[in-house]
TrEMBL record, chain A:
SUPFAM superfamilies: Thiolase-like (SSF53901). Residues 9-223 form the Thiolase N-terminal domain. Pfam families: Thiolase_C_1, Thiolase_N. Residues 255-378 form the Thiolase C-terminal domain. InterPro entries: Thiolase, Thiolase-like, Thiolase_C_2, Thiolase_N. NCBIfam families: PRK06157.1 (NF004810). This is Acetyl-CoA acetyltransferase. PANTHER family: ACETYL-COA C-ACETYLTRANSFERASE (PTHR42870), ACETYL-COA C-ACYLTRANSFERASE (PTHR42870:SF6). It comes from the Bacteria. It comes from Actinocorallia aurantiaca.
TrEMBL record, chain B:
It comes from Actinocorallia aurantiaca. This is Hydroxymethylglutaryl-CoA synthase family protein. InterPro entries: NA-bd_OB-fold, Thiolase-like.
């Protein structure tokens, strides 16, 4: 376990484009928009005051020039990172370390994805040449394995399982409907959710997150410097990251009802943040609801529900915006959309707004402590990031 | 290599695919269980995978085989050998040669050559007629495999062979053409029958027989086949089987012969004639052990339990009727160096077992997926092990010619886990706990490269030995 950066760095400004089918914008445009908004949020800083940059993208650019070219950065270090769908949080993580190390005073983490320039359905990726023996799971295919395994393990009826998944989609769409930057800004009836066309296994279109274009950015400084730039900084309280060995798909044992990598990363983040009772202590959580069963399993992996009880807590409304933990109050990947490289930073963006009391209609009253949980890969073989952020100064 | 002087068959096996087609009318009922049908390979089967299924049923009879001959009229490649793919999947020794024979006469050629070398003859074919053609339901897909040796105690002995060759435009297909074209069979039948009877007469003479106890005739020309059967005194058991599977191209002689052996007792004679571009005749004598020489299920047992297809599904599986699916990129073709580096895994499903913690890692890797130790692994074949579904999905975003891809994560009996494509998924679907069996299939074909790997097929529909 790493030594952690608890209370050592703070976010002082963020920007996030609407997540959309941005037919009229390139990845460059989206980055410029997100960075411009971000810098505008820190009036005492100019872009040139930022000493180093990170840009996360899964496939919308190569190298640090993905950011330096559109911004016209001169003489600045820019690092491009990629970590599947956890790419955005990976940009944040590395930027945070750079500030904490003392190498820089002011850094920026950005993430971008331009998915809608492809006419393919769903996400695609380009892999290195191979022997052709790996099953090419589509994202819904891989994640759909969670639902039957969970239902089987905990003895749910088909109806109970369906109800839990439907409620997650219903809740996240209701939240997204209040969010002007969300891709889908319309509440969906449970009936409409269940009538949507099937995609994989139990999953229908309305169990899947939106494929969107978007970018997000954050300025990170040392915690002790944060008040130089803003009255309401958001502090990093804890952060864990795990790249799993993929053993869930390559040897027996894993049962598809949990993400062991998430459990490990979360334990590290909680330990750093002194979170011992997440259901009580955490006010809101932005979690990786790429598909509805993912959010269900995450409620247990994040310690919000006991094992096997996530589904009934979901149905009780425990994770609704006014529930015990407001989960995905911005709409989540489901409704806000999922431009891969931007998503992790978008999660921080909502935490940032909520912890500063700037979330408008969807504000979680009195929010003090939030979780941003981002993952990539697929059940059995994934990378997982969990952070705890709060608005109370160290 | 010594050339065998005594020519015998030590073991044989036939593989009939899971599907059959009895109708070629869109509105018609499938005529489930009809005695008149054609055998249909799944969309991901070809001469290689059919041949591997027949060949692997020979199991223990494959040790020290000096040569493999693959006969087909539908070779997956022209320049590249397909026999080598079968060789690799069967785990044959590196010093065994592997040779491809093409054309309708190739099955007889493979048998003759394998007898000469004491090798393994794999006859595998897929036959397709144009939709609506008169012969659409009278061709079929199948494979047969025969292990030859010089062991005089083997259950089947070759007593004589004879051939005749005639240059004749009977049926033909240029490279790349989807279907054969046929000359007026009233003209060609006479010439083929003459050739066949000439070869049969010489073979019987060499064997010192006037007639054989059983006669099988493989000829794609139905008029000729009927004439030859009548002249040689066939009891038409071969014609009856042919009606249930269709003429299976280069595999047909082998399938009919295997069926004749299936029905034989020790001390009987079998005359087998293949009439194509002339004729080849073989006279066999069965001996002790013929009842167990078939290492797989009997040929006729494989007719039961076939899934009879509606015509539109057959056309889709065959690629004759393409349905638009979601817009997804083509699967990437495999690359030669990684395929060569991981040949054992790709072709023979050899994973790795850790000497320290006993966990099986699949695909094989230097780090054990169980304990994480490096370089503690030894090879472990998963090819002939049942596996149990842990979780499964039907992916409509990844459709194939026969509907959505069914993909599962399975645990292998004795240890190990794989992600698999489910082959020949049953109508009722696949669920956690179901047992599957590894089968080599074409995963995809992109840029002219066929990506072969091991899928898994429901045990209930597998008739392995």
């Amino acid at each position: 376990m790493g030594k952690g950066l608890s209370n050592r760095v703070a976010i002082i400004a963020m920007g996030c484009t609407p997540f959309r089918e941005h037919w009229d914008k390139s990845a460059d445009d989206l980055l410029v928009d997100a960075v411009t908004e971000c810098v505008a949020g820190a009036p005492k800083l100019a872009l040139d005051d930022v000493e180093a940059f990170w840009v996360g993208t899964q496939g919308s650019g190569m190298s640090g020039q993905t950011l330096s070219k559109p911004l016209g950065l001169r003489g600045k270090p820019v690092t491009r990172v990629e970590n599947y769908c956890a790419t955005g949080s990976e940009a944040f993580r590395n930027a945070a370390y750079a500030v904490a190390s003392g190498a820089y005073d002011v850094v920026m983490a950005t993430g971008v994805e331009k998915l809608k320039d492809s006419s393919f359905s769903g996400l695609t990726a380009t892999w290195p040449p191979s022997d052709g023996t790996d099953v090419e799971w589509t994202a819904p295919g891989g994640f759909s394995l969670l639902a039957p395994a969970y239902r089987e393990r905990y003895g749910l009826t088909d109806r109970e399982m369906r109800d839990a998944l439907t409620h997650i989609a219903f809740k996240n769409h209701a939240n997204g409907a209040l969010n002007p930057k969300a891709q889908f800004r319309r509440a969906m009836s449970k009936e409409a959710i269940e009538k949507s066309p099937r995609i994989a296994g139990m999953l229908s279109v309305m169990d899947c997150s939106g494929v969107a274009d978007g970018a997000a950015a954050a300025i990170i400084v040392r915690a002790e410097d944060a008040h130089l730039y803003t009255d309401r900084p958001v502090y990093l309280k804890g952060m864990g990251f795990v790249a799993g060995p993929g053993d869930g798909l390559s040897t027996d044992g894993y049962d598809f009802t949990t993400f062991p990598e998430v459990v490990q990363a979360t334990a590290e983040a909680y330990a750093q943040a002194d979170v011992t009772n997440p259901r009580e202590q955490i006010d809101l959580a932005e979690v990786h609801d790429c598909f509805t069963p993912t959010e269900l399993v995450l409620m247990e992996d994040l310690g919000f529900s006991e094992r096997g009880r996530g589904w009934s807590d979901v149905l009780k409304g425990s994770f609704d915006r006014d529930g015990d933990v407001a989960v995905n109050p911005d709409g989540g990947l489901k409704s806000f959309g999922h431009p891969v490289g931007a998503t992790g930073l978008r999660m921080f963006y909502e935490c940032f707004l909520q912890l500063r009391g700037e979330a408008g209609e969807r504000q979680v009253p009195g929010a003090r402590l939030a979780v941003a949980q981002n993952l990539g890969g697929q059940p059995g073989s994934c990378v997982a990031f969990t952070a705890v952020v709060g608005n109370e100064a160290p | 290599m010594t050339v065998a002087t005594t020519k015998t068959i030590t073991a044989y096996a036939v593989y009939l695919p899971a599907f059959a087609l009895a109708v070629n009318d869109f509105g018609a009922d499938v005529r489930d269980g009809s005695a008149r049908a054609r055998s249909v390979a799944s969309h991901d089967e070809d001469a290689v995978t059919l041949g591997v299924e027949a060949g692997r049923r020979l199991d223990g009879a494959l040790q020290d085989v000096p040569a493999l001959l693959l006969a087909t009229s539908e070779p997956p490649y022209l320049d590249k050998s397909s026999a080598t793919t079968v060789h690799a999947a069967l785990g044959l020794p590196e010093n065994a040669t592997a040779v491809d024979l093409h054309g309708l006469r190739a099955g007889a050629g493979a048998l003759r050559t394998a007898f000469g070398m004491g090798g393994l003859a794999v006859l595998a074919d897929q036959r397709t007629a144009p939709p609506g053609a008169a012969g659409e339901l009278s061709q079929g897909d199948a494979a047969a495999a025969f292990a030859m040796s010089g062991d005089s105690s083997a259950p089947v002995r070759l007593r004589a062979t004879a051939s005749s060759t005639v240059e004749l435009l009977d049926r033909w297909r240029a490279p790349g053409a989807p279907h054969p074209t046929v000359w007026d069979e009233r003209f060609t039948a006479n010439i083929l029958a003459e050739s066949a009877l000439s070869a049969a007469s010489r073979a019987l003479g060499e064997a010192g027989l006037e007639r054989a106890d059983r006669v099988v005739v493989a000829c794609a020309n139905p008029r000729a086949a009927a004439a030859i059967r009548a002249a040689l005194g066939s009891d038409r058991a071969d014609a009856e089987l042919e009606a249930a599977i269709g003429h299976t191209g280069a595999a047909h002689l082998g399938v009919l012969l295997a069926d004749a052996f299936d029905r034989s007792r020790p001390g009987e004679t079998v005359l087998a004639v293949c009439a194509a571009d002339g004729a080849d005749a073989f006279v066999f004598e069965t001996g002790e052990g013929v009842e167990t020489a078939n290492r797989g299920p009997k040929v006729r047992e494989q007719l039961g339990g076939r899934t009879y297809l509606p015509y539109d599904r057959y056309l889709r599986m065959r690629g004759l009727f393409v349905v638009q699916g979601p817009n997804r990129p083509d699967p990437a073709p495999p690359a030669a160096p990684p395929m060569a580096r991981r040949r054992e895994w790709k072709m023979a499903l050899v994973a790795a077992r850790c000497a320290e913690c006993d966990a099986v890692t699949a695909p094989p890797a230097r780090a054990c997926a169980g304990c994480g130790r490096l370089d503690t692994q030894r090879p472990e074949s998963l090819r002939d092990r049942a596996c149990t579904v842990v979780s499964v999905t039907e992916d409509l975003l990844a459709p194939g010619p026969d509907g959505p891809a069914v993909q599962a994560v399975v645990d292998v009996e004795g240890g190990g886990r794989r992600s698999v494509h489910v082959a020949d998924p049953p109508a009722g679907g696949v669920k956690a706990g179901d047992e599957l069996w590894p089968v080599l299939r074409r995963i995809s074909s992109t840029q002219g490269i066929h990506n072969y790997f091991w899928k898994a097929r429901p045990m209930g529909t597998v008739r392995h030995g």
